[in-house]
């Protein structure tokens, strides 16, 4: 009788363990996927050279405007906190709020500005080439 109780207990334990694994399934959400930047332009081919990935956390204080700049490489980001406005040289504008993603302009002059009352916090992923700058100021 004790062995039957042990077997039943073991079976129950295995069933509980299996159901816990099912409940803890991995969930994947694609936040952004595109071959175009936010203004609709096709992204360029990757440059030749040793690839280098950079991940930056950028905090832009309230009422701050970044200098006019361009990125010579593909990059994308996600705004974690606050609001951010990105303005291209041709005045095309993108307004972002926390949770929004961006596939950034490549080789086009633009700037970002935080017009809000709290810091804007963005994580940006750069797919670059070793030794090359991530951005160039005008």
UniProtKB/TrEMBL annotation:
Residues 1-22 form the signal peptide. Keywords: Signal. This is Cupin. Residues 59-126 form the Cupin type-2 domain. SUPFAM superfamilies: RmlC-like cupins (SSF51182).
């Amino acid at each position: 009788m004790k062995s039957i109780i042990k077997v039943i207990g073991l079976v129950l334990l295995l069933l509980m363990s299996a159901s816990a694994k099912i409940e803890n399934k991995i969930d994947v959400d694609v936040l952004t996927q595109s071959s175009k930047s936010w203004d609709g332009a096709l992204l360029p081919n990757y440059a030749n050279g040793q690839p280098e990935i950079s991940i930056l956390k950028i905090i832009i204080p309230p009422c701050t405007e970044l200098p006019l700049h361009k990125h010579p490489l593909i990059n994308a980001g996600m705004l974690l906190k606050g609001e951010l406005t990105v303005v291209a040289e041709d005045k095309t504008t993108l307004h972002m709020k926390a949770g929004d993603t961006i596939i950034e302009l490549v080789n086009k002059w633009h700037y970002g500005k935080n017009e809000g009352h709290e810091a804007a916090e963005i994580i940006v992923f750069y797919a670059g080439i070793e030794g090359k700058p991530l951005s160039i100021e005008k």
